[in-house]
Write a structure and sequence with these properties.
The protein is mainly α. The chain has one domain: ABC transporter involved in vitamin B12 uptake, BtuC, CATH 1.10.3470. It contains eleven helices and two strands. A two-stranded antiparallel ribbon has the order 1-2. This is Branched-chain amino acid ABC transporter permease. Keywords: Amino-acid transport, Cell membrane, Membrane, Transmembrane, Transmembrane helix, Transport.
């Protein structure tokens, strides 16, 4: 019974981190209509930068610097890579796939092919639901939840957030109203990239730092976006948490491969029953 409780809590915590990453993927798709195949590798870069910067200046500095570096990286990629090809959806898939390969090989050539571990900045355990549970994992869940809440507050309470919602709703009308659509698109891509890198630095002490880490996280993010409803940000968060908890519970009785298969089965049933996503029609 203890293992079921532990894996369920693990699933909830991992779901909040995945939700943070998937939000970046969802907002980029919702605004730019880009299927960003490199998004998982942005997460991977976040784990790598977290490991390197934390080893030099400490984890808390890395927690601040990594998303800022991710935002700058997103601005550069949007301007040099995405914007010239944004008129062709198929071309953006090819380009982001190539970007994914470049990021993976760059990290492999720099750090080597062997996975690395990052020490947790907060040590110790706490008695929770009858088990001793790692304190850092609880901190990671709390921080991810606060970051998600901050993201939605930004969208609803700031001028730039209002512009993003306006462009997502009707780009032509937003342009007619004088909203700088090109600037909003660049900012949105950079914000989505920053969210992926932030998820990476939070997850680094929990998972392994590996140049292939993005390969595993990307399908989960895509499933969360699809099940939640394409472009539906709140639905994406809910779907990410539900999928991760479900995989955690299934992992208590079967191997991780079967847990991932169960997510694919759920996604298939959702697409058959509700092709526009489980939370289609909910407030975005």
């Amino acid at each position: 019974m203890d293992i079921v409780i532990a894996l369920t809590i693990n699933g909830l915590i991992w779901g909040l981190i995945v939700a943070l990453i998937a939000l970046g993927l969802s907002i980029i798709f919702g605004l730019l209509d880009i299927i960003n195949v490199a998004h998982g590798d942005f997460f991977m870069v976040g784990t790598v930068l977290g490991l390197v910067i934390a080893g030099t200046t400490g984890f808390w500095i890395a927690l601040v610097l990594v998303p800022l570096l991710g935002f700058c990286l997103g601005l550069v990629i949007e301007r040099l890579v995405i914007r010239p090809a944004i008129s062709s959806a198929s071309l953006t898939i090819v380009i982001t796939f190539g970007l994914s390969m470049i990021l993976q090989e760059a990290v492999r050539a720099t750090l080597g092919p062997q996975p690395r571990r990052m020490a947790a900045p907060v040590e110790g355990t706490i008695h929770l639901f009858g088990i001793d549970y790692d304190v850092y994992r609880l901190f990671a869940a709390l921080f991810a939840a606060l970051a998600i809440a901050g993201f939605f507050l930004f969208l609803s309470r700031t001028t730039l957030g209002t512009w993003i919602r306006a462009v997502r709703h009707d780009r032509e009308t937003a342009t007619a109203l004088g909203i700088p659509v090109t600037l909003v698109c660049a900012f949105t891509f950079a914000l989505g990239t920053a969210l992926a890198l932030l998820g990476g630095v939070i997850a680094a002490p929990i998972t392994t730092v590996d140049f292939r880490a993005g390969i595993d996280i990307l399908p989960v993010c895509f499933m969360a976006v699809v099940i939640g409803g394409l472009g539906n940000l709140k639905g994406t968060v809910a779907a990410a948490v539900l999928l991760a908890v479900m995989e955690g519970v299934v992992s208590a009785f079967a191997d991780p491969t079967m847990a991932r298969i169960s997510s694919l089965v759920v996604m298939s049933f959702v697409l058959l029953a509700r092709p526009h996503g489980l939370f289609a029609g909910a407030t975005r």
